[in-house]
Amino acid sequence: MKRLRAKKGLAAVSTTVLAGLLLTLVAACGSGTPAPSSTLSAGTTSSIAAGSRQELLVAVASSMKEAFTSIGRAFDEANNTMTTFTFDASGTLQKQIEAGAPVDVFVSAAMTQVSNLLKENLVVSSSVKTFAGNELVLAVPADSKLGITSFQDLARDDIKKVATGDPMTAPHGKAAVEILTSLGILDKVEPKLIYSKNASQTLTYVEQGEVDAAIMFATDAKLGGTKVKVVATSDPGWHSRIQYVTAIVSESKSKALGQAFVDFISRPEAQTILQNNGFLPAPPS
User: Fold this and answer.
1) Cβ atoms 142, 192 nearer than 8 A
2) Radius of gyration of the chain (CA)
């Protein structure tokens, strides 16, 4: 498997990551003047500037960045709170929580990462809830001339680079491998795979024309606008169920506020935001 050189590096989780999260909290608490949502550091946003408001740190799968920035703003306006988000692959966020990152709520793009944390008693079991779903699609750069129309086309000799997430950390990458396995073409396509660190980076590869195609979430392809063309949608039976899951971190000092946030996600206002961003209702249990 190959990796394209990421613009901002693909460093593994380390003490640097934890330091970055701590610096984010310090930065978020440095201003007493309310302000619109703004980026505090790479992959991290705060919906309202800090003042005397209660604070919440939420680690969210990167495929939900746009939706949760809006949900956080709505939650804060309704509750006089300050919610700060960090966005990355679900597996990467899991590792950060295992390493002691000061996270209150975890929002994963798969149950796998939440289940791993449950086994370690690192999240509160009663807070685990599925609240949305998604689809996997095959997308190409809008100006592609390769005539790709199906997942099976990825096995063609003229298709050289196919992006998806790292299956060890990114749920859409794990699902991509399952799709290729179900179709019996993994052996032919695997040498062409370019692993990104998260869903957002997979989209970037397609937008910039650095790959011939990508297997990605439908919501990320939608964010690509006119730069990205969806050519096929996966049959749900080809991969594990796509479900977005919440969990309150056991070491959180703001469990009550965290539960309020988890509950807010299931309310009509938040669900409308999710649907407007292309997410599906929560799949049946």
Assistant:
1) no
2) 19
Amino acid at 2: K
Helix (H, G, I), strand (E, B) or coil at 261: helix
Q: Is the pLDDT of residue 18 over 80?
A: no
From the list 246, 10, 17, 13, the residue with the least C-alpha distance to 109 is 246
Q: Rounded to an integer, what distance in angstroms lies between the CA atom of residue 18 and that of residue 157?
A: 43
Contact 247, 112 (CB under 8 A): no
The pLDDT of 241-256, averaged and rounded, is 97
Is CATH 3.40.190.10 the right assignment for the domain spanning 136-238?
A: yes
Phi then psi for residue 213, to 5 deg, are: -165, 170
**15-133+243-276 CATH fold:** D-Maltodextrin-Binding Protein; domain 2 (3.40.190)
Alpha-helical (H) ranges within 158-249 are 171-182, 186-189, 199-207, 218-223
What residues are paired with 59 via a beta bridge? 86, 106
Provide the edge-to-edge strand list for the sheet that holds 105-108. 38-41, 44-46, 81-88, 54-61, 105-108, 243-248, 129-133
CA 176 vs CA 150, 198, 271: distances in Å:
13, 13, 26
Q: Is 146 exposed, middle or buried (0-12, 13-18, 19+ CB in 10 A)?
A: middle
Domain boundaries, the chain: 15-133+243-276, 136-238
pLDDT in tens, 77-97: 999 999 999 999 999 999 999
